[in-house]
Every structure is written in structure tokens, then in C-alpha cells.
Design brief:
The protein is an all-alpha fold and 258 residues long. The chain has a single domain, classed as Orthogonal Bundle (TorD-like). Helices cover 58% and strands 0% of the residues. It is built from ten helices and no strands. The chain is globular and about 40 Å long. 29% of the residues are buried.
Length: 258
């Protein structure tokens, strides 16, 4: 891996830029930091297309208010009336939230000083915002000569981010609600291609699209059958007190102690 402090500082700026777009915050200071990063990076873009996209983002953002950006963010990722874009690596890998990729990410975090503050950050460890925030912090540490984190940065990109970032970016880019974020995906594409070259990691092969798991609100055939049997038993009358009890659904707490 090339040892270049200037490149690592630039990489940290890009990761910071993307993280600020995907970590929800109402704090005006963070919004002004986002505008500052755009102004820095648009002066020396990675290529022509990303330079133009950064210029378009700069022209689209209100220099005094984040209201428009927050609205677009909500429309893309939270508005139930629109096609919501999922943001976790596990979802793109397995079609479920809090899957293997979250476990892998927690294991990588165990090798660093970084932990998820559950009071401030509600998304899982393998969410796009959290991953980008971690990469920004670790890349900045590498740029400050803490080379112990070079391998962790390489592994998180190669084994977590690289596998789903293209599909995620495509989902955002093609979403009808994306305007500013559509331009951002152009910048993200250029940066990811640069990262692959710099870290010497190949673009993953196109895999068969994972079948997404249905919402928990949808009742499965097995559940319908179970309920039908319980109804029939009730109609015939319980033989004893135990038979009269409804089976209870068990909810597991998937939050990890980190």
C-alpha cells in the first residue's frame, strides 16, 4: 500500500464528506462543515465528472439552511410513501437487517478505539453512514501516522463497503426523489474507483440480486396455519389450563454490547 500522507488526508476528507450526507443531524454546524468540505474538494476533484457533480451540489445547497437537504434525505430513506432505500450492508448481502455484515463490522471495530454511541447514533454498525464515519476517522488516523489502522481500513473497505456500495449507489441514483444525492452518487462512484486502485482491491463480480425478506407485517403461510390450529383447538375447548394458553412470540434483543 502506498505510503502517502497527502493522499490519505484527501481520502479522509472524501469519507468525511460522504459521512456527513448519510448521518442525520439537525445541527447547523455539521451542515456548514459539509459545505466547507464541498468547497475544498471541488477545487481539486478526482475527475471531470465528479468535479461537475460537486459544483452542482454546491449550487443546489442553501448556504444558510439545511432544510432542503434534510427533506431529500427523509424522502430517500425514511418516507413511507416513497420507495425507501435500505442502508445496511447486511440487507444487500442477505436481505435482512442486522446480519453477518453487522457482526463482521463489530469485530473490526473491536480492533479500534471506535464504538457506536447508541444514544447519538441509532443505525446499526453496518449502516452506510456509520461505515463511512468510521472510515473517515481511521483514514485520518492513518494520515496522522497511526499506521496500525491501515489493515483495518483495507479490510473494512474490502470485506464490507466494496461488496454493496455499487448496488446502494445505483439505488440512490435511480430513485425519483434523488436530486442532490444523485449528484453525490457521481462523486461517490469516482471515489470508490480510486479507492479500489489505491487499496488494490478488485470490483466485486455482479451477483444475483438477493431476495429481500418480507416485512414482519406480512403473515407467513406457517403462521396462518398455526393460527388456524389454535382457533380449532379453542373451538373444541381446552383440555386443561396449559392448552388454553396462546403461544407467545419471543422477541430477541439484537443490540450488541459494544
Amino acid at each position: 500500500m502506498q505510503d502517502n500522507q497527502a493522499i490519505n488526508k484527501a481520502r479522509a476528507l472524501y469519507y468525511n464528506l460522504f459521512a456527513n450526507f448519510f448521518v442525520y443531524s439537525k445541527e447547523s454546524e455539521k451542515y456548514f462543515e459539509l459545505i466547507r468540505l464541498i468547497n475544498i474538494l471541488k477545487e481539486n476533484p478526482l475527475d471531470v465528472s465528479s468535479g461537475k457533480a460537486l459544483e452542482n451540489i454546491s449550487n443546489s445547497l442553501d448556504a444558510t439552511s439545511n432544510v432542503e437537504l434534510v427533506q431529500e434525505y427523509d424522502n430517500l430513506f425514511h418516507n413511507p410513501k416513497n420507495e425507501k432505500i435500505r442502508t445496511t450492508a447486511s440487507y444487500y448481502d442477505e436481505g435482512v437487517e442486522s446480519g453477518k455484515k453487522r457482526v463482521e463490522m463489530i469485530q473490526f471495530l473491536g480492533k479500534t478505539k471506535i464504538r457506536r454511541d447508541e444514544k447519538e447514533f441509532f443505525e446499526y454498525e453496518d449502516s452506510i453512514g456509520f461505515i463511512l464515519s468510521v472510515m473517515a476517522e481511521l483514514t485520518n488516523l492513518v494520515a496522522s501516522d497511526e499506521k496500525v489502522y491501515e489493515n483495518t481500513v483495507h479490510c473494512i473497505f474490502g470485506e464490507i463497503l466494496n461488496d454493496f456500495i455499487d448496488e446502494f449507489a445505483k439505488d440512490v441514483y435511480e430513485n425519483k426523489s434523488a436530486v442532490i444525492y444523485k449528484e453525490l452518487m457521481v462523486v461517490l462512484h469516482s471515489f470508490v474507483e480510486f479507492e479500489r486502485l489505491y487499496l488494490e482491491i478488485s470490483k466485486p463480480k455482479v451477483k444475483e440480486k438477493t431476495t429481500k425478506v418480507e416485512s414482519c407485517d406480512v403473515i407467513s403461510d406457517a403462521e396462518l396455519e398455526r393460527r388456524a390450529k389454535n382457533k380449532a383447538l379453542k373451538a373444541n375447548g381446552p383440555k386443561n389450563k396449559q392448552d388454553d394458553e396462546e403461544p407467545k412470540d419471543i422477541v430477541f434483543d439484537v443490540e450488541s454490547e459494544v
